[in-house]
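tool=predict chain=A
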Amino acid sequence: MAGRTKWEKNVYGLVGGRVGGRRRGFRQSTVALGVALLAVACSLSLPDEEDIDGAVDDVVTDLGSDLGLGGSGSLDPAAILGALFPDLSASEIADITVSLTLDEVMALRDELEAIRVEVAEFSADLFQTAEERVAEREMDLGPEGAFPESLEALGAVCLYDEAQGTATVALSGVFSGQTAIQLETGSVSVLVDGAAQSGSLSCLYQGESVDIVLLVDITGSMSNVIASVRDSVVAFTEAVSASGLVGTLSVVTFQDTVGVDVTFQEPAPPSYERSPFFPPVDMGDADAVDSLQAFVRSLEANRGADAPENLSGAIDFARNSVIGGTEAAPIVIDGDTGPDGTRPFPALTSEHQVFIALTDITFHSDATSSISLLPEFQPRPAGVIARSLHQTGTVVHIVDPSWVDANLDPTDPGEDDVDADYWAINSGGLGEDVVLGYSLLDLELVVVAERTGLLDVVLDAVLATSCKFEFSADLSVVTEVEVELDVEGQVYTEVLPVISF
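tool=predict ok
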């Protein structure tokens, strides 16, 4: 997709399919996308597919009248904000109005006008719905879906710290069919050149703390699924908060920027897209979790310049409070330096860190593939960011469309963008497409699951079964280790590559 504009990306969009049992590209209705984008941006109801043709003209006409876009709409700031954000209460509108001038309110209105003009230029196209694709998925996979048939580790990697001479086998989750399995000491063995290693097992269900960071793509192509994503994230945070796990929850959004902590109800800083975040809160603090959920419910999806997204920048920001630069000279946001609107992301201090990314497309691999980004937001090379994940034991789960099947090598000079699954594969997370091209975390499931999205893809249960086996050994010339799980007579073995750092 190199060189495509964001609007061209929207044509391909989220929806996808298959040819000959594998993947085929899909086109998404650009008009449907435009109506959805306007519906999200202005909190309008999304029309049914059969009503889309007539809805386009109605939305353009009504929006122009309601918001004063070329008509005689009210110039009262509160009235304009009320039309722009009808889901906000009168008191919330009043609070915002106090902090904004009429010019700033008009600037917000003008952003929507630009969107309306671009949407009006699109022609009608039919598209295949997420429901149809999930039905196809169910037919391909059968009743078990993408779950394993028997005992299996879901997401695993062996990381070797060369300086310390220590290794960690990360097991992101353990299932037998659709049953989550909690491992106990003695049920995990690691063999190096056939020799069993002595080590220690630690699991989240045993009380070790975890920082969970949700990375949410809020670029324009996500506009038709952002409502489902919002509901899914809220449901997931409720489930995790009630699960007994200990630690924090936070949210980082990304467009072509990261760390620009400005809400969509505020004017954007000059030249920068908004990418607000919600800092870590104790998942056992009900009031704090409620505030995080309110933040999630306010998220919108718009803008963005080209097809690959800045997911690597979002990971670097959440992990290191870095928005770009190089390995030798990272652009660290510390509260005193950085572009307008940027704020530092608090350091993560729990014993484990888990990132969950929701996106619909590939990502910029490094500065050479991100010429559409402003220089300060061009991400560091993916390998540099991945090494920081290895050093901190951070696991990344990827929720993306099953049809996105792109290059997985960020160092390949012939490719401008990389499949988001790269981060899961290299950190021991879930997301790699393994069964008929599907994974447990396909974005299509989130789209159709409404208010139970991430519960349907069992991420809360995955976290509850997440463990690490740590041991000391010289793996400097070892390329792989063997892991064996033995649970009530069920035995599972897997050979894992060794990633040294």
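The two ends are 32 Å apart (CA to CA). The chain is about 30% helix and 20% strand.
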